[in-house]
Sequence to fold (1020 residues):
Amino acid sequence: MSVPKLEQLSQSVVQGPSLAAGAIPTRDWMDIPVKFTPGSYAYVAKKDKVEYLNSQSGLSFPNAREWSPEDDDWKLPEGWKEIILKGLQERLGKFRSLKIFMDCCVRCGACADKCHFFLGTGDPKNMPVLRAELLRSVYRNDFTLGGKILGRMVGAREMTVSVLKEWFMYSYQCTECRRCSIFCPYGIDTAEITMMLRELLHLVGIGINWILEPVSNSNRTGNHMGLQPHTFKDNVEFLVEDVESLTGVKPDISFNRKGAEILFITPSADVFAEPGLYTAMGYLLLFEAIGLDYTWSTYASEGGNFGLFTNNEAMKKLNAKMYAEAERLGVKYIIGGECGHMWRVVHQYMETMNGPADFLEKPVSPITGTVFENAASSKMVHISEFTADLIKHGKLKFDKSRNSHIKATFHDSCNPARAMGLIDEPRYILDHVVDWVEMPENTIREQTFCCGSGTGLNTDEIMELRMRAGLPRANAVKYVHEKHGVNMLSCVCAIDRATLTSLNDYWTPEVGVCGVTELVANAIVQEDETRGELEEGLRTMVF
Amino acid sequence: MKYAFSFLAVIALILIAWLGSQIPGMPYLFGIALPYLAMMIFLGGFVYRVVQWGKSPVPFSIQTTCGQGKSLDFIKHDRLEAPDTTAEVVARMFLEIVTFRSLFRNTKSELHDGPKITYESSKWLWLFAIIFHYSFLMVVIRHMRLFLDPVPFWIAWLEFGDGLFQVGAPTWYMTDIGLLAGCVLLFSRRLITRHVRFISLVNDYFPLVLIFAIAVTGILMRYFLRTEIDIVNIKQLAVGLVTFSPVIGTEIGAIFYIHLFLVCVLLAYFPFSKLMHFAGVFMSPTRNMKNNTRAVRHVNPWNPKIIPHSYGGYEDEFREFMVDSGIPVEKELPPKKDEEKDEE
Amino acid sequence: MYNKRFIIPGLVIFVLFVTFPLWFNAFSTASPVPKPELPPGGEKECVAPASEMRDRHMVLLNEWRDGVLRDGERDVITVGGKQYRKGLQMACMQCHTSKEKFCDTCHDYTSVKPFCWDCHLTPEEAALKKETH
Fold:
């Protein structure tokens, strides 16, 4: 879809008319139907992808078909309403969070202006509270006494096709970033609501291709890009060559090697596209510099987990490969690369779903001897934790001046910040390798703003939505660009590296995007390297 | 119109109690039967709701971290915002429940030309909520003087503190004003803040109007409509109620029955409404869980048995390519292909 | 996980809190409903009918105090041919001679702490003081 010109969108965001921009809606939200037009929705999942996934053991993705959200008839299965209500009942029984979040909201509105989608689109249904009310209204109608008796008067409504359409629209205008949850006096987490909505929609065959195709790719080939083993290997080997030609050091790599000490898993996007490639080159250089005994895997070649954006079964099935591969290869533990939602899954779900990981050992850094007690059970260490520890023990030699052409800032990815508490490790690393400044305080750390395209929404057909949703982040970047001359936005997330690039290109084209490990590798000084003669950093040498 | 309806509903309740209590014999209904019934619904309903919540497991550890988690020893752990031990969780929950910490964090975002988004601290909601809840709590505790015999000294102290300014006779309590103000402020906020008005339901206005009416009738009874309000008589009834031997001595003014009836309605309404946030705030998984999920495994009782697309299946599909590109495999290719490979 | 070991004790504590008056009263000796002593002198009339006095005596006393102390209105009140001087000790305590047997009975029962006695002396105290002078 064509994206409006910068001036146009800038005006539209501020002037609306929208609730966020100060207009007052005249109709009750239940009376405003959704309308699907090109650009307002992500393309729906292709029939063959849905069929493939539905054929996999443990997964259920029924009702594969050709359809379009713009059609009146969504070709829903027979008895779709009962399927949804039964699905909701089942989930109320499985998730206490859902029950409590349905019952406790007092509609205080504290969450409203915390959502980047609301700020960018001004659409009242993008207020987290209202996004939850989309589901809560149906819950009231069928699962609460008051709703059954008093109906609409107490905010209850029947499950209808138009409600279903509304669910589809707004559960895919939420990136499960959890920023609202920080401000909610009861900790109501819209990510939970959105997950439930998406699970329910999948029950009747509603899903988007940008998520389901990666899920099926990850299932079949091990990574969401659908890279087959040899291609994956080729890609990494290209990077090895690049590193060699740039630095004179040829990183030693291996694939699916049994007996390696550590299995390294990172989002496959890192070995596939700029600017993630530079981060992957960073990993290669870093591991080479410390002589780490590690292996890549082609089978578990995806750190990210697109299953998280569909339902908990798919998330579990994709995630299970990590432990399965670690066990097969007989490694001691796993190091995970820079990624946002991957780390949500690894930190909060992995061992619950696929553990206990008793076939692995408690992670110990082979270089420093540090025991990673915080990963004692799940046996998976974040690359930033690993690197920070190396730096602390003086195991890395840096020439910070190699990054002197960079004035960086740091974008906390939603999931590491709010679902893991990984906030200061990357900062510690940055302090040692680059000159950097923080963005304004309400946009960083646990209050960080989403890139606007997480949870499988970084697809081009909804570019305007993405640029709107990313505005709060872009605005903070612009602020530090203008005030401090920042020219590089660093982050620890592969989705960020892809989406923030589009976002910056649109709102602040002067600022690039990089991974923290890229900056680390830029500054690493190794023996026998030849890049000392080069004046500028890794990225610059490539261009 | 949602707020207007709330007023109508409360006015209707007031009329019911007012007129109803004037009918001979009915004081026993309004003064004894309904309070018992309301209390049973309140307690039973409350426990039922919490038990219903409790019956659903917490399958995943979904804590929201609002600060640095416990990690390397040189990275400063934010013990309150990303708790790692039970004690830290208790501290986090205590501050959340007692000081409304999350609300205290509230900001207000504004869009300006440019576009430029600004954020500023906004503590009004926190302030209103604190005034409202603490006033309400104090009012409830103060009422214990009517139910407890003899009255414990600490209640007398609280009363003394609450009436410290010694304004008027009987002395005005600060929390009476606080409760009224809290209701008015929270209600006005719902009407005036445009996005809050848009999301507000009858379910939000009604409890505020009801509690406001309870406070007003209480104040009227204490300070203005004192006819037939004999505190001794009322205490006799209150103590009678909690010792299961209630008596209604001499006649008690209608304003008392209105007040009591509205309280009964609130009690009975409580377990079936959003007011259950009182219990919910204790049980919210994003706040009451430890952020130690990689150090201690969290168990999901319904963890489905789902196995990944197996390595064997994967290798079967791609073995040829893998062997070709020198990736180790579990099963070698059939001999014929091996030869081909050797030739390469 | 179900957190039974937190939820069940939590509920028990909640129920105990809410039913606090029940067991508090069950374990304490209830005082009889107070019977304030009628004037020992046998007076039958007061400045207002008994029911009104019961409801509004604190308001009346407050008005008197404000009138006398702040505005200097020390006028005499005549009710039913009988004259009363405005004042707790000058009027009320003339008939209701015992604070303990009259005022305190109800006030203690309902935990009312009037601040009359911050300044005023009870008749007993007044008598004591006179003796020491």
User: Anything to note?
Assistant: The radius of gyration of chain B is 31 Å. Chain B has two domains: 2-67+130-283, 311-343.
